[in-house]
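Lab notebook page, bench 4
Experiment: in silico fold of construct C2
Operator: M.H.
Input chain length: 667 residues
Purpose: comparison with the prior construct
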Amino acid sequence: MKSMSNVDIYTISDELNNLLSGARVDKSFQPTNDIVVIRFHVAGTGRVDLVMQCGSRIHTSQYPLENPTNPPTFPMLLRKKIKGAHVESVKQHNFDRVVEIKVKKDEYYTLIVELFDKGNIILLNDENNIVLPLKRKHWSDRDISSKKEYIFPEERGINPISVSEDEFKTIFEEDSDVVRTLARNGLGSLYAEEIIKRANEITEIDKNTPNGELTDAQQNALYESLKKLFDNLKNESAKPQIVKNESKEDVVPLDLIKYDDFEKTYYSNFNEACDEFYSKKINTGIKDIKEAAWNKKVNKFEKRLRLQEETLDNFNTTIEECQHKGEVIYSNYPTIENIINVVNSARSKDYSFKEIGKILKNAKKDGMAEAQIFDSIDKLGVLTLDIDDTKLIIDPKLPIPENAEVYYEKAKKAKRKTKGALIAIENTKKQLEEIKAKKDIAMENISTPKKRVKKNLKWYEKLRWFVSSDNILVVGGRDANTNESIVKKYLDPKDIYLHADIHGASSTAVKLNGHELNDNILKESGEFAASFSSAWSLGFTSQDVYWVNPEQVSKTPESGEFLAKGSFVIRGHRNYIRGARVKIAVGIVDYEGKRIMAGPIDALEAHCENFVVLKPGFTKKEAIAKKILGKINEDELLTLDDIVRVLPSGKCDIDEEYHQRKKYEKN
């Protein structure tokens, strides 16, 4: 996969600086060994994901990558150190393939993204010391390890944006040709050839011309071409595009003569162009990694099935052989009895088993008929007989029927085991089919990455909300700002206001719109207010909630007191809903179109058939969201973020008892 050039990085850095300056750093992720994603919140824009791949690329992305369930060390440290920080600047270091992202929290941190060679991502503190690198590396002049001072790579090449004509001409003092000289000085082969092509419109220059043979006119033409080309970037007149023909595809920030005959797709910014170019290609690499992991799971079941089928074959072989040996013993009863009698007679005369073996071998050689079936005898006196190419183990101390019964019993035992083996094989086949189906779905999702499209949310979807079983809209605040909005913007005189009787709760408004207040509305709204409060994260199963009329809610504090943002004073009598249930359900409802709703169980039961009931628990929201997505996202209307957004603050568990009970009642 193409790595970003110095020119690409210059363009991207400039765009990122304009976009992310002042943005708040959110969570960090590490989808693969060399890719780190940092999520930012940009005022007026919302979520922005920045993808950084060591040695290859850096750009914003609308294509979410699957993250591991347990985050690696590096993104966890980024969360600890810079989550909540604000971006000060994003810049390219000396027109090199290095990007510096400076952020400020309690102190300044700098994230270094190295895009040369195999690359690296490194967090520095305000003293320029390394807090943690994604990869530890050591060279004679650079040591990329924790607590070491970070040293930038040696500066090479020129900065085409600011280089003077005299500085430019000095690069041709080296012993090389024109195209190699330009390429080695930070322009790469693509832009080296582009500058030469443009210079040829002024005066003829062969790209393989030795530097020593360049005329002043040719050097002047090269410099003029370079300045005109890069003035487009300097003046923010870039034309981001993906170009392709039958054999090649590329992403560039400028119109290039080299790509005149290529099909071109233009984009509004270079980040968007890079996202389209790289994100689909990187999925091929991720697909290989994921497919290898899935193949390992599939191979595990295939190996188990193979061993189980071999075991079943062995059981069937044992049954067939043992039954045959039992029959052979009975069909050769007199002959076997004779040789047993010989052995027992010799033992009665104090012959050792070794001596008996020698006697029988000699008798066999001498043509004695009874001895022809003899093969060997061990030190315990157990005989091995060979009858019609069938080896039999015979204990002379046992009667012949008992020797035969030993084989019949082995056949019976193997026959009993075949039943269990057949059941195990069927179970493994079923598991193998399931894991293959899951693999196919996972591979399809990776092969066709889905672009995250910003949804146009209804006003109530920006808040907590649900529609009661009586079709009454109830809204609640998500944070201090939206708690303010609930009272100041959405609470009408004929509505009612609810709040859980605990510190840290959502301001809730029941939008009656002329409907009469009843016990059902109060019950459901009370459960909603209780669930979206700190009672959930504390693991409570119930919580008291009070309700009042809008005129009782005031932002004016008592004399000498102060009210924080999102807080209000309640004056007068409070009506209590005692022991409101702390439990919610999540499902897709048809309310002004299909959308996800999280609210009281009764409300979800009234508006949809397929939903998941949640209670305070011990599972992280992302893990629960994945389970919910698998259960309710039949028409693929939702993303993981849609579900995470509507969940209460704190860990959750699925209420399996509720679902088992409903399943039993349905049957």
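Observations: The chain has 16 helices and 29 strands. The mean pLDDT is 91.
Next step: discuss at group meeting.
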